[in-house]
Amino acid sequence: HGLGRTPVPLTGQRGPCLVAMGPLSARLLMQRGRPKSDRLGKIRSLDLSGLKLLSEHLDPKLLSRLTQLQELDLSNNQLETLPANLGLSHLRVLRCANNQLGDVTALCQFPELEELSLEGNPFLTVSDNLKVSFLLPKLRKVNGKDASSTSSQVENLNRELTSRVTAHWEKFKAALSPGEEAEKAQADFVKSAVRDIRYGPESLSEFTQWRVRMISEELVASGGAQVREADIPERPPKAPAAQEPRARPVAVKRPDDVSLSPSPNKRVCTSSSVCVEGSAPGSDDSRPALDLEPLHFLQCHSKNNSPRDLETQLWACAFEPAWEEGHAGATSQTVATCGGEAVCVIDCQTGIVLHKYKAPGEEFFSVAWTALTVVTQAGHKKRWSVLAAAGLRGLVRLLHVRAGFCCGVIRAHKKAIATLCFSPTHETHLFTASYDKRIILWDLGVPNHDYEFQASQLLTLDATSIPLRLCPVASCPDAYLLAGCEGGCCCWDVRLDRPQKRRVCEVEFVFSEGSEAAGRRVDGLAFVNQDVVASKGNGLGTICLWSWSQTWGARGKQSSLAVVVLARLQWSPTKLAYFSLSTCPDEGIVLCGDEEGNVWLYDVRRLLSQQAPLPAAPQAPTQILKWPQPWALGQMVTKTMVNTVAANRTCTYLTALTDSNIVAIWKR
Questions:
Q1: Is the whole model's pTM more than 0.70, yes or no?
Q2: Within-domain flag for 249
Q3: Residue 665 has pLDDT above 50, yes or no
């Protein structure tokens, strides 16, 4: 069990090994420059790659003597920034791949730049790609790809942002008091514009706020005159370049990611045909049914990018948590999905596939997010969002999604990995559950400045059947782990201060009296709040809500415990398995798909707040989202199953994955 130590960018391998290097000299520049010359002013091409250069080694006084330089290669160094005054005004080609750049604004000093390479800089994001397009009006290629589509996207964003800033300025002026100081009012306007103006997907917020500040400052500097809609000159239209089946670093919808949006009048309907005892759908007096509408239907996991692929099964999705500190209640609209040989990262608002990672020969079953704090060589702290993906081959791939490369592979199990999850309290602790009937707790460690992980095993948990779902206990995640397995629901002690590194199941939970329910599959498991667990699979047609604290409090020394059931929720009577349920704890929502393509939603807050005894009969769903029909895909999808469903923290966006290669996104 080890970890691949060489990071693998999606666009190719890393560069050669680096050697030690001090400050640059004129002699070195003449040695590595072309054409060969004893005068720096005659050099047109310069290769400074693989020298382990730091930012402070780039001496502007020395480099400004390269007055005719048109091509510069700085790849495979350790640059965190580019000096702002290098004086290379004729530069047309710049290669900065495999460095540690965290900002691109210094590139504006190269107005003639036509080709740029920034691959393998893990701290650059989608927003930085848009900044590059804005700052460099003559840019034709980025990372070897045509830059025109990004330029068009930037022009559209710029046009909309300019319109919104102008409208905000008019509204701001109307609210000013006559005696208010002009300079202070202008500063307040810029601050309010940056704070209040929002447009586009969350993943582009850094770029949009950057442009809003620039547009606002230009507006007040001009005394309120009309701002230019775009500072980017018009470029001649180009035929779209052929798309490779790999992730692109810019957030544009690729032709192979087929959007299947329904017609505008196609609304989600609330079912009234489910007849069970208890409250009817939507009858909760305290809250109405969620108003969810179908927003996007995507086909982004297809084999060979074929729109006719309606067979690839999609198995898991997870919303990226909002990691930013100081943003209470913040939520993400970015979701990761997996199925077949691909993992996709999608912006729910626009339906844009931000990133796509393919592993030929793999079939992905599970994804999970974490965020790691990385310290650069200069001592700067950076926050990484890392996505773990695993499946058939027993490997865990660690994806730095915003930079677009796989930064490590854990050879975790010899058999397929059914599911994985990160500890909610330790960002580097990862649980993997496999068909080898083992659950392993890994410590990934923090990657060093060369993006290398050194994973280690902390615990091995033995199961008597295949674990299907993992769920750290919400009130004590460092102490106990629940798992839904083929043979039932089990619990392990995962405290790391105990000496045993290999452990067996502490307790098996029984869901009804007698032995009939013992040993039944549990294929859905999630906490609704700090105490209440939702589980599915033990009884046909029901989802069980039970109390962890009341159940565990009655344990004593028993190895088998009957759960303390609080309520049951009516669900599909299907005998088919592996429909994963999920919860939205902040909203008190339970969600689950079914074999008919429906999504069942339950608002359980009012139910759980009732005084005992709770209703004995299964409670009807608050709402059922019907699958929009028919489909226009060149052929009809007359029936589909929803394998899994997830919502973000505020239940603003809901994503459902099907057995017919469709990612469905609803918006509240």
A1: no
A2: no
A3: yes
